[in-house]
From TrEMBL:
The organism's place on the tree of life at top rank: Eukaryota
Location within or outside the cell: Cytoplasm; Nucleus envelope
UniProt KW Coiled coil keyword: yes
Organism in which the protein naturally occurs: Osmerus mordax
Record's protein name: Charged multivesicular body protein 7
Principal location: cytoplasm
InterPro entries for the chain: CHMP7_WHD, Snf7_fam
Family: Belongs to the SNF7 family.
Domain (CHMP7 winged helix) ranges: 142-209
Primary gene name: CHMP7
Keywords noted in UniProt: Coiled coil, Cytoplasm, Nucleus, Protein transport, Transport
Length: 449
C-alpha cells in the first residue's frame, strides 16, 4: 500500500494477514465469525482508502495494486465487492448512471460512465468473477462528495448565478473533486437529489443549481439561458474594460519615458493611442452598464414575481379563512353578546338588591351605633382626691401663712402611686406663690396597680 500510515495495526502481523489475504469459503455458514471478520476488515479498508484519495469509485485492478503486501495479492476482494454491492454500499457505474436524462447524454457522459460491464451477479456469494477494470461507485462517498460540492457552490461568489459552465464548475471544485470523473459522479448524485440539472447549449456544458428553499429544480429554460448569456457578456465586458484600463496606463507611462528621453513626437503618439484606448473603454463601459441594468431589472422582476405569488397565496388563504364569515353574521353575534351581558347585569342587581333580614330597621341600627360612640367617650371614676374649693387668703405673718397653707391642702391620698421620692421632690420645687395665693403645676398621678 502506498501510505503506510493509513494501514491498520494488524498489517504487520503475518499470521493475521495470511488469514485476511486468503480467499473466502464457498459457504459463509461454515464459519460465520471468520467470514464476517474478514468482510468487515476489507470493507472498512476500501472505504477509508477511497476517502483518503478523494475518489468515489473503485475497481479490482486498483485495489489489488493498492493492497499488495510482500508480493501477495488479497484473494477475496472480488467477493468483498460483490457483498458491498448486494448490501447497497457500492453500485456499478452503469447502474448508478442508468437514470441519466438527455442532458447527460448530450454531454457524452455515456462514453465515460455508461459502458457495459463484463460480469453479472451470481445468485450465490461464490466464484462470480469481476472484470479487473469494472468500476464501482461507493455510495457513502459519492453522497459526501455531492454535499461538499453543493456547499462549495453556495458559499462561493458564483452562488448568485443559477447557471454555471462546466469549466467554471471544474475550477470552482478543483479542491473538492480530484478529477472530472469524480465531479461527474457528484453531479449525478446531486441530480438524483433534485439539486442540479445539466444541459448542452451551443456546444457548451451547462449546470443549473437549485437555490436555497427550492424543493425541486426546474429544467433549463430559455429565460435561464438568456440570463446566462447576459452574465457571460457582463463578465466578458468587465474583462475587456479592465484590460483597456491597463493598456491606457501603459501608454501613459510610455509617454512619460519618451518625454524624459526628449522624444516628443513619440510621446504624442503614445498619448493619441491612450485617447483611442480610453474611447474604446468608455464605449465598452457604457455597454457594460446597459447589461448590468438589464440584469438588475430581471432580478427585480423575479422579486416582484415572488411578491405577487405571495400576495396570491395570502388572498387565497384569506378567502378560505373568511369563507363562512359575513357582516350580517358578525352583527348578529355582537347583538347576542350584548343581550347576554344585559341579562347578566339584571341578574346581578336582583341578587344584590334583596336583603337577608328585611325586618331590621336601618334607623334603629344607626341610633345604636351613636349610643356606642357616646359610651366609648365616657371616662371612668377618678382615683384622685377632690380639688379644693375654698380660696387661699394672703397672710402677713409667716406662722399664719404656714397654718393656712397646711389647712388648705387636701387630704393625703390613701392609694399607692407609681411615683418615686425624686419625682415628688421635683414636683414640690415647682410650686410658686403669687399675690392671690399659690399656683402649682399639677401632675396627674396614676394609682399603683
Amino acid at each position: 500500500m502506498s501510505s503506510e500510515s493509513t494501514l491498520p495495526p494488524e498489517w504487520e502481523d503475518d499470521e493475521r494477514m495470511n488469514f485476511l489475504f486468503s480467499d473466502f469459503k464457498e459457504n459463509r455458514e461454515v464459519n460465520t465469525t471468520d467470514w464476517d471478520s474478514k468482510m468487515d476488515f476489507w470493507t472498512s479498508l476500501i472505504v477509508q482508502n477511497c476517502r483518503r484519495r478523494g475518489t468515489v469509485c473503485v475497481n479490482l485492478q486498483d485495489l489489488n495494486d493498492t493492497f499488495r503486501r510482500k508480493g501477495n495479492l488479497p484473494l477475496g476482494l472480488g467477493t468483498v465487492i460483490q457483498s458491498m454491492a448486494r448490501c447497497g454500499k457500492t453500485q456499478r457505474e452503469s447502474e448508478f448512471a442508468a437514470n441519466i436524462d438527455s442532458g447527460w447524454l448530450s454531454w457524452g457522459v455515456g462514453l465515460l460512465l455508461v459502458k457495459p460491464l463484463k460480469w453479472t451477479f451470481s445468485t450465490l456469494l461464490g466464484r462470480s468473477h469481476i472484470a479487473l477494470e469494472a468500476s464501482f461507485v461507493v455510495i457513502e462517498l459519492v453522497k459526501e462528495k455531492a454535499a461538499e460540492l453543493l456547499a462549495v457552490y453556495r458559499s462561493s461568489p458564483l452562488a448568485s448565478r443559477t447557471l454555471l459552465s462546466f469549466q467554471e464548475l471544474c475550477t470552482l471544485a478543483s479542491h473538492v473533486c480530484v478529477d472530472e470523473s469524480t465531479l461527474c459522479m457528484a453531479l449525478l448524485q446531486l441530480q438524483r437529489e433534485k439539486q442540479v440539472v445539466v444541459a448542452l447549449q451551443d456546444g457548451e456544458k451547462i449546470v443549473k443549481f437549485s437555490q436555497p428553499g427550492q424543493n425541486r429544480i426546474s429544467p433549463v429554460s430559455d429565460v435561464d439561458m438568456g440570463i446566462y448569456q447576459l452574465q457571460r457578456s457582463e463578465n466578458m465586458l468587465e474583462g475587456k474594460v479592465e484590460a483597456l484600463g491597463q493598456e491606457s496606463e501603459k501608454c501613459r507611462e510610455e509617454a512619460k519615458v519618451c518625454l524624459r528621453q526628449g522624444k516628443k513626437s513619440q510621446a504624442l503618439r503614445c498619448l493619441r493611442s491612450r485617447k483611442r484606448v480610453e474611447k474604446r473603454a468608455d464605449r465598452l463601459h457604457a455597454q457594460l452598464e446597459t447589461v448590468k441594468g438589464i440584469l438588475d431589472r430581471i432580478a427585480h422582476s423575479q422579486t416582484d414575481k415572488l411578491v405577487v405569488q405571495a400576495y396570491q397565496a395570502g388572498v387565497a388563504a384569506l378567502q378560505v379563512s373568511l369563507k363562512d364569515v359575513t357582516v350580517e353574521r358578525a352583527e348578529s353575534l355582537v347583538d347576542q353578546i350584548q343581550e347576554l351581558c344585559d341579562n347578566q347585569e339584571e341578574v346581578s342587581q336582583a341578587l344584590s338588591g334583596g336583603g337577608l333580614n328585611p325586618d331590621v330597621d336601618t334607623d334603629e341600627l344607626e341610633e345604636e351605633l351613636e349610643s356606642l360612640l357616646r359610651d366609648s367617650e365616657l371616662v371612668g371614676p377618678s382615683t384622685l382626691p377632690d380639688v379644693p374649693t375654698h380660696p387661699f387668703s394672703p397672710a402677713t405673718e409667716p406662722s399664719v401663712l404656714g397654718d393656712n397653707l397646711l389647712s388648705s391642702l387636701p387630704s393625703v391620698p390613701q392609694n399607692h402611686f407609681n411615683i418615686t421620692d425624686e419625682e415628688l421632690d421635683t414636683e414640690l420645687s415647682r410650686l410658686t406663690l403669687t399675690e392671690s395665693g399659690m399656683i402649682s403645676t399639677t401632675k396627674i398621678l396614676e394609682p399603683a396597680q
